[in-house]
Amino acid sequence: MKNLKLYSLLFIALAAFSSCEDKVEPLGTSYASFESYLGDITVTPGVDYAQSVSIFTANITGADRTIPLMLSGTLGEASYTAPTSVTIPANTNQGVIDLVFKDVNLDIVVDKTLSIALTGSSDISVGEKITLNVAKGCAAGEGKFKIAVSLDAYPEEVYWRVVDVAANAIVLQNNTTVGFGGYAGASGTQRDATCLPAGEYRFEIFDQYEDGAGAVNFSINGVQVFSSNGAYGAGTSTVFTVN
Question: Quick check: 114 and 105 in contact, CB under 8 A?
């Protein structure tokens, strides 16, 4: 009976101690990081593109907090405007970075990058940088055709083209003339892009040795339309529409 009373007292004491511990709230951490993935930036010719990027802190203070920014990447300074720091106003946990991207020195084939990093200090620690992909888009009413062709050991055997069905005219191809040899001496993945007016088009790809080649895919306005692992034999084709 004495043992039972002793165990009961110990249980009550432990329960009371645990209850007291549950009431202790952890202090907010002084930490800042970017919002989740924002997606790619596509700049329409002649039109500025505004993008706001938010950062969040794990705590709230009664004073403004300013964090310096570090900008880097392949995007030239003439192609965007950005602040050199971001401020989290007092009594909030969110700051906003306002960016403007311009149609200056952008490439329709190869995307440029802009990386933004928060600079930590003894007062606040920071998360990983973010990197935005910035692409040149097409004018209103056009679709951006973008293709990637992975070459095998015989790149000269590959020939592809995009044909305007209504006009029966080639609008883009991987050679200066109709026929093989356009990729002679090339290697890796070759990319190309163009703006297509609304209409119906046919994509055709051929292999001179008729045994297929490397993988190929293309998209319209970032949406994949065609993909092949390269097992297309003598060739293959597909018809697509630009709205």
Answer: no
For residue 109, give the amino acid letter: V
Q: Rounded distance, CA 51 to CA 68, Å?
A: 19
- Consecutive H or E run containing 223: strand 223-228
Residue 17 pLDDT greater than 70, yes or no: no
CATH architecture of the domain with range 31-136: Sandwich (2.60)
Other beta carbons less than 10 A from residue 45's beta carbon: 14
Residue 158 CB neighbour total at 10 angstroms:
30
For 64-102, the pLDDT digits (tens) are: 999 999 999 999 999 999 999 999 999 999 999 999 999
The domain made up of 142-242 has a fold known as Immunoglobulin-like (2.60.40)
8 sits in which H/E element: helix 2-22
228 beta partners: 216
Cα separation, 226 vs 88, whole angstroms: 45
